[in-house]
# Entry
Amino acid sequence: MTQIKLFCPATIANLSCGFDVLGLCLDNAGDEMIVRKTEQKGVRITKIVGADLPMETEKNVSGVAALAMLEAYESHFNTIDFGFEIEIYKNIKAGSGIGSSAASSAGAVFGINELLGQPYSRKDLVQFAMQGEKLASGNAHADNVAPALLGGFTLVRSYAPLDIIRIDSPEELFATVVHPQIELKTSDARSVLKQTVSLKSAIMQWGNVGGLIAGLYTKDYDLIGRSLHDEIVEPLRSVLIPGFDLIKQTALENGALGSGISGSGPSIFALSRGKNTADQIAKAISEVYEKMNLPYEIHVSKINPDGVRVL
Ligand code: ADP
# Structure
């Protein structure tokens, strides 16, 4: 095999009570990527369609993640006398809050791993994809690249050592994600956070994280709904997103189990049981942004159990 074509899924991180630790993988929103073996050594980005992103390997997250992986491969296994080129077909807008950079980082390392004969597991690949995230945000976080590579829900239990747990989710669980077309800088979304939390808030938060995980394992939709509550970050960040309270309220009135900020915003997600409810929520929240005259994009997707996949 000398070439592989991939679907690189969008992801929702900072899932309500799971700020910085819980994420999920979407099924029908994502980029495509072609990774090709070349005679020339190294990694080159040869084509980017659909977005204005840097072509230089060291400035594109897919290039940085690929280089991190090849460096580890050559030091652990053997040196290689060929290289790789990457074509990126972007559908996920950078800065949307649904893991645009993570899709590219995860795709690059997955593709190269396939072309090398799978020396690494999907879980092993997370550490390399995280290096792409470091380029995008200054922080090698795993809460988007883990669900992009592993599918389902993922929990980043710890970074030192890296401990990622993949969590199955009930089959009828659907996500509705709306992306209002405004720019919300991650740095601004970070600057409103407080560095300390009260014990009372922390207790509520970890109660809900435990409840959410238990609800996913036992397919208890009511428990999932009761647990989708963010006591700590959402109250501070939601003020930066136009219409957030109304969108959330509309989602809940239309049957959502819960709703919150996707990533660092401005996208807003709602989880629901069944596609009909997810579609109904999409219709109702679209009307809110139409009335506000705010352009938006909307996705309805089941949870993707597999992560990056070969097309
Ligand atoms: P979000 O998660 O909010 O969708 P990201 O955290 O993915 O957004 O941030 C995207 C940042 O990463 C932008 O500054 C963008 O220029 C940079 N970037 C570099 N390479 C890529 C790539 N291949 N795909 C997406 N973003 C990239």
